[in-house]
Design a protein that fits this description.
- The chain starts with a helix and ends with a helix.
- The longest helix has 13 residues, at 4-16.
- The chain has helices at residues 4-16, 27-37, 39-42, 60-70, 82-93, 99-110, 164-173; strands at residues 122-125, 128-133, 138-143, 146-151, 159-163.
- The protein is an alpha+beta fold.
- The protein is built from 7 helices and 5 strands.
- Strand 4 (146-151) and strand 5 form a beta hairpin.
- Strands 1-2-3-4-5 form a 5-stranded antiparallel β-sheet.
- InterPro entries: Cyt_c-like_dom, Cyt_c-like_dom_sf.
- This is Cytochrome c domain-containing protein.
């Protein structure tokens, strides 16, 4: 039988060993970039796209770059980086979510024995954006760009796992 303290240690160890895949995009960063650079012409939701299929799949950033380079009215956006375009494409593919929720959703599928029940409601407290899992009495939250884990069965402070972007890459790679 796994004790609560061992459970916390195992989760921290497993999560710390994950690698960040290349090309992961951020919904939150993409939302900001879209609002600052694209909204005026493309609207919200972006319904003024000449070919919405360009946003599908892994080629979306390259397709957006092609549109910028081939459309005179968009050439002022040529300074956007490939990372910026990946973030915009990610936002356009998932406009009604947040990076934190994508990370939490991924965690629930990767660690269902720890983060149960799935689809717990997200909330905010003391600067943390978090979810509480009543079945296992654990919390997972993000504060100041860091991902934290707290096992309510073990006295102590939340365990700082790593930068939240590290886990966002895992969520992105898994389709979240």
């Amino acid at each position: 039988m796994t004790t609560p303290l061992l459970r916390t240690a195992l989760l921290a160890g497993v999560l710390a060993g994950l690698a960040l895949p290349a090309g992961a995009g951020s919904v939150d960063k993409g939302r900001t970039l879209y609002l600052n650079n694209c909204l005026v012409c493309h609207g919200m939701p972006p319904d003024q796209l000449s070919n919405p299929s360009v946003l599908a799949g892994t080629d979306a950033p390259a397709n957006i770059r092609h549109a910028i380079n081939s459309q005179v009215q968009m050439r002022h956006l040529a300074t956007l980086t490939d990372t910026d375009l990946a973030n915009i494409a990610t936002f356009l593919g998932k406009p009604s979510t947040t990076d934190a929720d994508r990370t939490f959703d991924w965690g629930e599928t990767a660690y269902p024995e720890l983060l149960a029940p799935a689809k717990a409601k997200s909330a905010v407290y003391d600067g943390y954006y978090y979810r509480y899992y009543s079945t296992t009495n654990v919390y997972i939250g993000i504060k100041n760009g860091r991902l934290y884990f707290l096992d309510g069965n073990v006295p102590g402070e939340p365990l700082d796992l790593a930068p939240a972007d590290y886990y966002l890459g895992q969520a992105e790679a898994a389709g979240f």
